[in-house]
Amino acid sequence: MVRVALMLIPLSLGEKLAARYRGVSTRLAAVYPGLRYDLINAQIPVGPESYAFCAGLSAAIWAVLAAIFVLVVVKVRGIGGPLMVLGPLLGFLLVWIIFFLLHIRYPKLLSNSVAEKIDRGLLFATRDMLIQISSGIPLFGAMANVADGDYGQVSLEFRKVVNEVRSGTALSTALENMAVSSQSKYLKKTVWQLITAMRSGANLTTALKGIIKLLVDNQLRSVKAYNAELNFIVLIYLMVAAVLPTIGTTVLVIFSVFGVLGVTPEIYTGLVASGMFVQCLIIGYVNMRRPRLYE
Questions:
Q1: pLDDT score, position 218
Q2: Domain limit, last residue, from 114, 134, 167
Q3: Are residues 245 and 189 in the same domain?
């Protein structure tokens, strides 16, 4: 069973509980109608009701822990009155919503990561197939060699096709099944072009050359788009790392002369800490947006 990040309830246990509380699990699954397809694409072998119930129960546990933490902070600070009740309650609701949405969206993120892995190895796999087919090897033999090769997620996808064909399924039907179930739009395009070439009797090498050109153009476009985006991000980073702390410190010093604000160690520490936090966020965003073409 697949392990979902930050989910405290095992999916196997969630299936049993969801069957018992079917009304609750059905209402939770209705929050995100596309959950069924995301679970299929992410290859998580549970139903949407079971997964949604696990997500809601796990989020409730995180929310209870957050409410206890807020309650302890309120008591330590000596805060009384309505805040003693509203604080933990608002903390519970906020944390439950955040973690529930995080759990619900996780299969979509997982399926996107699988598609990225397929796109990375697809160019090399199609080049290998082009060389083999140009040498006289049939399409199924070239696909079997790719399935046995070291092309990561692409080899796993082609291995499914090879296993279906060896079990008696027609090659075109197996390719159609892969095109329908695949998370990568470029693998879908590749497979449909191969199916069209097979059925029309066209030259497979010509179809593969067109597919390779499409994949190369896509990689060049992604690198150029990232380069254009990186210029703006570097400008923002320089402002946060150098300009804003300097200007902020200068303004605080000027205000301290007029007795408005003093440059206390707490304020200066908060200024430095907030700058470092924003810098870490920008670095993480740059790393997330970086095209991973050859990893």
A1: 83
A2: 114
A3: no
Average pLDDT over residues 64-91: 79
Closest by Cα among 186, 188, 208, 185 to 197:
208
Distance from C-alpha of 96 to C-alpha of 6, rounded to nearest angstrom: 13
In a domain, 193, yes or no: yes
Is 84 a member of any domain?
A: yes
Q: Do 222 and 192 sit in the same domain of this protein? A: no
Instruction: Write down which residue in 167, 186, 216 finishes a domain.
Output: 216
Provide the residue range defining the domain that includes 276.
Answer: 217-289
Whether pLDDT at 117 is above 60 = yes
pLDDT at position 163: 92
Asked if the structure places residue 1 within a domain, the reply is no
Structure-block tokens of residue 62: 């995180």
Same domain, 69 and 95: yes
pLDDT tens per residue across span 145-201: 998 888 888 888 889 899 999 998 888 889 888 888 777 888 888 888 888 888 888
- The pLDDT assigned to 223 comes to 84
For the ranges 87-91, 114-118, 166-170, the lowest mean pLDDT is seen at 114-118
Q: How many domains does the chain have?
A: 3
Whether residue 2 is contained in a domain is answered as no
